[in-house]
Amino acid sequence: xxxxxxxxxxxxxxxxxxxxxxxxxxxxxxxxxxxxxxxxxxxxxxxxxxxxxxxxxxxxxxxxxxxxxxxxxxxxxxxxxxxxxxxxxxxxxxxxxxxxxxxxxxxxxxxxxxxxxxxxxxxxxxxx
Length: 128
Fold this sequence. Notes:
mainly alpha, 77% helix
């Protein structure tokens, strides 16, 4: 009884973890397709900061001291600087995308009536 229940709990959590990982990857891909790379970088950094703060609040064994705060601060600032550097580097390269910026900024209907969201879903489905 108990071993089977534990195995089933693990299986359910394992499958849920896979779906959540897919959702994170899909939304990151979608964000990059609909917005600029800078927007994706900024939202990624905000997610990292939010995850760190929530972890500090949720888990009772976190002992906040000056060394901890300096470490978290340096990691966050380093991640932001890295994102800005990579964005600036990507702006210096020639663009590979043939779509205009206005097409990338809004989910307008394409010529065949397909929205940007539907295009992203079909792109993801083709890669599987």
